[in-house]
Design a protein that fits this description.
Layout (H helix, E strand, L loop, with lengths): L13 E5 L3 H13 L3 E5 L5 H12 L7 H6 L3 E3 L3 H5 L4 E4 L5 H14 L5 E4 L6 H4 L23 H11 E6 L8 E6 L5 H12 L6 E4 L9 H17 L5 H9 L2 H7 L2 H7 L5 H17 L15 H7 L10 H13 L4 H30 L1
Parallel strand pairs: 1-2, 1-4, 2-3, 4-5, 5-6, 7-8
Antiparallel strand pairs: 6-7
Helix pairs in contact: 1-2, 11-16, 12-13
Length: 373
């Protein structure tokens, strides 16, 4: 499907992207390639136009839309002020620096100029929506004028309260125009309709993106927490001389990478338990897992019987027959989601793994070919 196809979704959306760094430019490509929305971009950098002209074509490679065509057709507009950028937007999506103070100041400016029904998205890597708007109603910085009802009755506190119900974290994995994951992380005040809209918006794209709702605010969300914890252990292993950086990367590429490209961590480890699924996996090598978990006192203390500081307290309040320890919960949820391994599932797993491994081998061959040429 090309970017000029009239069947592309979201023709009535007017999206403003604030911040055109690596994430912003990638999201710009995603919206241009897979929607028919009008896109306005704003970034205070003085070379914004040259930056977009030189970098965006790299992200549009393989698609029949050029930067010049996008601007001429009205699909892409480069704004020279934040006020003009957000004034007609139906969606404002920010990709600014990862500082709470920056986010708060940015939303303060956006709320002064955007419509009170405009959807607010943040592509932050770890700053929760509740923190981004914390205390704004008390700062007195707003202009206090009404912009949605026309009678000037909307107060600054009203605007902040409304924004709190509309702000949603839309956290990508870089680069978002290729990586399928989008973590949707509402605050306790985010309206459920905003989450549903974002799910529908990204699911409608022909890009294969997979929006997944994170049900509680937590630092780093889910994907980054998992990857950063792995990164911490990798750095520790390198620091201790157990493995080199290059060796560690190759170990991941030759094992976890292909595995997790085919099946997620719980489903894949379920195969290791044979007919008993993930319960069998923990029964078979639980002590080896415990040895690793207990090897570093910096790690969360969770023993292989399933007890942790939190689950011990929960076990006294759980209903009869309900999983109470973390281990019981993991087993129950894994069995419910994936079932136990079947011959058909094993065949599908192996087919997927072989495809990924062959793709890696082809990538290495091409890399060698380029270096030798």
């Amino acid at each position: 499907m090309s970017s000029s196809d009239p069947q592309l979704p979201h023709p009535n959306e007017r999206i403003t992207l604030i911040g055109l760094g690596a994430i912003g430019i990638s999201f710009l490509a995603l919206h241009l390639r897979y929607t028919s929305a009008q896109i306005t971009v704003y970034d205070p950098r003085p070379d914004l136009e040259d930056h977009i002209t030189s970098i965006l074509p790299l992200y549009l490679s393989g698609h029949n839309l050029t930067v010049a065509e996008a601007r001429k057709s009205g699909r892409l507009h480069i704004s020279n002020s934040l006020e003009s950028a957000v004034s007609r937007a139906t969606i404002v999506q920010e990709q600014g620096p990862e500082r709470v103070e920056f986010k708060q100041n940015l939303w303060r400016q956006v709320l002064n100029h955007a419509d009170t029904k405009c959807r607010l998205w943040s592509s932050t890597s770890g700053i929760e929506a509740s923190r981004q708007l914390a205390g704004l109603e008390r700062d007195g910085e707003g202009d206090g004028d009404g912009d949605g009802d026309g009678d000037g009755s909307t107060t600054w506190a009203d605007k902040v309260s409304s924004a709190r119900s509309r702000l949603l974290i839309v956290h990508p994995f870089n680069p978002p125009h290729i990586m399928p994951l989008l973590e949707l992380v509402p605050s306790p005040w985010t309206d459920e309709a905003e989450v549903s809209f974002a799910q529908t918006y990204f699911s409608a794209l022909a890009s294969g993106h997979r929006p997944i709702v994170v049900h509680k605010e937590i630092k780093g969300f889910v994907a980054n927490r998992l990857s950063f914890i792995l990164l911490r252990e990798a750095c520790h292993l390198v620091d201790q001389g157990v493995v080199s950086v290059q060796e560690c990367d190759e170990i991941i590429r030759a094992s976890l990478g292909p595995r997790w490209a085919v099946k997620g961590i719980f489903e894949m480890y379920g195969f290791g338990g044979g007919n008993a699924g993930i319960k069998g996996f923990f029964n078979n090598i639980g002590h080896s897992i415990a040895d690793v978990w207990e090897d570093d006192p910096r790690h969360v203390q969770m023993n292989i019987e399933g007890r942790s500081a939190s689950s011990t307290a929960e076990a006294t309040t759980g209903g009869q027959g309900q999983p109470s320890t973390w281990l019981e919960k993991v087993i129950a949820q894994s069995d419910e989601a994936f079932g136990l391994p079947t011959p058909q599932a094993i065949t599908a797993r192996d087919r997927g793994l072989n495809m990924v491994v062959k793709a890696q081998a082809e990538m290495q061959r091409l890399d060698r070919q380029e270096k030798e040429s």
